[in-house]
Specification:
By secondary structure, the protein is of the alpha+beta class. It has seven helices and 18 strands. The protein is elongated and about 65 Å long.
């Protein structure tokens, strides 16, 4: 492979803001795997945000790139899986599998799509120093006759339309809005774009915690394990909250100590099988399972009696869990833990993904 922009490439990043800034170009924020596509003839490589190759996991995307893109090019975008009228991040996670036979099977059952939003090189020309407005125009031309598995993200310079997108596109599984300056060059690994994501709050039961991995064991709390009660009365593990200061991590040890328990009967202590076909709020979700992203990662945790309640901020749910790490706001001693249910969560109105892609 010999391209004017060679792998690995660290994607250009975005910094968070609470509101959509005026005077920029706006795109939907896709919820998938960030991916840099490199094509030099028959040589195709799919690079991830952490510079690890995704090529072997998405053979159908490789074939779509071969069928749809110019012979020599480099594109930035997102790999997503569409299920019905919305994105399916859970199905996307299942695609990272060590067995080639499983990868091939899932590539047919849950095929992925590449959504492009930037063009870094075309032919022998590097475009990284060109303004985004030029790169976008060239990208539109490149993808004017692409297949349904290689798509162009919508874009607008209308703040009014971007604000509407922010409100309605979430129902199709999107994450928010990204804003870019028209004259912005492609700046690897720099937070020069703006992202505006949804933020909501929920009251959750704190039923365990993990020690901070970068501190001596037993000296600092890393994250709190969060739970919500389903309609079946079972406390489901919905994620964690973290991002505490060093001082707060140490102080949490004393705050949590009265609730630590070694007794049996903890709601997450059972090892019964989970019904994968059940409703997310009814599934028996527990922490501590092995992750295929890092099989050696320590997911051990310390159980707490499910009596503490805290308010957390989150962006959105994926199935029955928080999609990203939630942010601790404050304790809620006034709340009964049994009142912390899925019913309190704000669920976006369903929106068809086909309408997103039509702009």
């Amino acid at each position: 492979m010999k391209l004017p922009v060679m792998p690995p490439v660290k994607p250009m990043l975005a910094k968070s803001q609470p509101t959509i800034p005026p005077g920029m170009v706006y795109e939907p924020k896709w919820d998938g795997f960030r991916c840099i596509v490199f094509r030099d003839g028959d040589e195709i490589e799919l690079g991830s945000r952490n510079e690890k190759p995704l090529t072997r996991y998405f053979p159908e995307v490789v074939e779509a790139v071969r069928a749809s893109l110019p012979e020599r090019c480099v594109l930035d975008g997102e790999i997503v899986i569409v299920s019905g009228s919305a994105l399916d991040f859970e199905a996307l996670l299942q695609r990272i599998h060590p067995a080639a036979s499983r990868v091939q099977k899932l590539s047919i059952e849950t095929p992925a799509t590449f959504v492009a939003f930037d063009l870094l090189a075309l032919g022998d020309e590097s475009l990284v120093n060109e303004p985004f407005s030029k790169r976008r125009a060239m990208l539109e031309d490149v993808l004017s006759s692409s297949s349904s598995s290689v798509l162009l993200t919508p874009a607008t310079d209308s703040l009014e339309l971007a604000t509407r997108w922010f409100s309605v596109f979430e129902g199709a599984g999107l994450d928010g809005v990204v804003a870019k300056s028209r004259d912005l060059g492609y700046r690897q690994d720099q937070r020069v774009m703006v992202k505006v994501k949804h933020e909501r709050t929920a009251d959750c039961v704190v039923a365990g915690f993990r020690w901070h991995r970068a501190s001596p064991e037993g000296t600092a709390v890393g994250s709190l394990m969060l739970g919500l009660y389903g309609d079946n009365g079972v406390l489901q593990h919905v994620g964690v909250c973290g991002a505490f200061s060093a001082v707060r991590r140490r102080a949490l040890i004393a705050e949590l100590e009265p609730y630590r328990t070694d007794e049996g009967g903890h709601p997450w202590g059972s090892t019964e099988a989970v019904d994968p076909g059940a409703d997310p709020a009814e599934q028996d979700r527990r922490p501590g399972g092995v992750t295929r992203w890092n099989a050696g990662k320590d997911l051990s945790w310390v159980p707490l009696r499910p009596e503490l309640v805290c308010e957390v901020a989150y962006d959105h749910m994926e199935g029955g869990r928080f999609r990203h790490t939630a942010q601790f706001r404050h304790w809620r001693p006034d709340r009964d833990p049994l009142s912390c249910t899925y019913a309190q969560l704000d669920r976006p109105v369903t929106f068809d993904l086909a309408d997103v892609l039509s702009g």
